[in-house]
Amino acid sequence: MRHLIVLVLVFVGFTSCHKSKRRVSISQTRERTLFDERFSADIKDYPPLSWRAIPTTRFRLKNYLAGPTEEVQIFFGLTQGEVLQNANRWLGQFSAPVASDLSFFGTVPLLGAQAYLVEAEGKFGGGMGQESKENYALLGVIRPQEDGVITIKMVGPQADVAALREDFLEYARTLERHDPQTTPENNKFSLKDDE
User: Fold this and answer.
1) Which residues, at least 6 apart from 115, have a Cβ–Cβ distance to it below 8 Å?
2) Element containing residue 150 per DSSP (H, E)
3) Given pLDDT bands bounded at 50, 70 and 90, which one contains residue 184?
4) How far apart, in whole angstroms, are the C-alpha atoms of residue 25 and residue 185?
5) Alpha-carbon distance 151 to 144, whole Å?
6) Parallel, antiparallel, or unpaired: how do β-strands 62-66 and 52-54 relate?
7) Neighbours of 77 (CB within 10 A)
8) pLDDT tens across 71-104, in order?
9) Fewest CB within 10 A of the end CB: N or C in the chain?
10) Which of these, 75, 79, 86, 42, lies nearest to 175 by C-alpha position?
C-alpha cells in the first residue's frame, strides 16, 4: 500500500511540473455601459478638493460630504418627475410653503440650459434615512431634461451651507457633458487572456 501511495505522489509531482500546451484565449467586445463610464450619466463633475466623495446610492450618482465637521451632504442625481414636483418635495422637507409655479424660484445655468434654484432653511424634517434637525438649510438646483430631471442638492447646518454656497454654485456651473463618441477608441472594450 505504501508503494502505491508513493507511486501516486510521484506521478502527481511529475504531471504538475509539466506545462500544459493548451492555450486559452477569451475575446469579448461590447458596447460601453453606464457602469463602464468614469463619469456618471456621461456627465463630468469637478467637486472642490475639500468635498469628500462617499458611495453612491440608488437615486444619487454622486454623493459628497463637506464642511468643517462633514455634516453637509451634497447629492447629484437623475430622477423622474417634473421640476415643480421635486422642488416642492424638497421645500416640504423644511415645512416651507410650496410654490404654485416656477416663477417662485431663481435660475442658474446648468449644462447649457436654465435650472431652478431651490432654497429653504429651518427645521429639516429628515427623510431618506436621515433624522430631523434644527437650524438646517437646503440649496438645490433642478434642471429638466427629456427623461426626468437633473438634481443637485446640498443639505446641512445653516452656517455651513451658507459658507459653501459659492463652491456649490461653481460646482453646478462646471458640470460638463461627456461624449464617448469623441473618443471612439475608448467606446468598446476588448478582453483577451492568453496564457
Assistant:
1) 107, 108, 109, 141, 142, 143, 150, 172
2) strand 148-157
3) very low
4) 22
5) 9
6) antiparallel
7) 20
8) 999 999 888 889 999 999 999 999 999 999 999 9
9) N
10) 42
Q: What is the dihedral of CA 78, 48, 117, 42, to 10 degrees?
A: -30
Identify the sign of the CA torsion 157, 169, 87, 73.
Answer: negative
Closest Cα to residue 90, out of 142, 150, 143, 162?
A: 142
Rg (CA), the chain: 26
Total-model pTM: 0.69
pLDDT computed for residue 39 by the predictor: 44
Beta strands in 71-147 (DSSP E): 72-79, 106-110, 113-124, 133-145
Question: Exposed e or buried b for every residue in 108-143, given b needs 16+ CB within 10 A?
Answer: eebeeeebbbbbbbeebeeeeeeeeeeebbbbbbbb
Tally Cβ neighbours within 10 Å of residue 188. 13
- Residue found by looking up cell 462617499 in the block: 54
Question: What band does 4 get if pLDDT is binned at 50, 70 and 90?
Answer: low
Alpha helices in the chain, H assignment, sequence order: 2-17, 83-92, 158-163, 165-174
Per DSSP, helices labelled H in 42-120 are 83-92
CB 88 within 8 A of CB 128: no
Which three cell numbers, joined as nine digits, stand for 140? 438645490
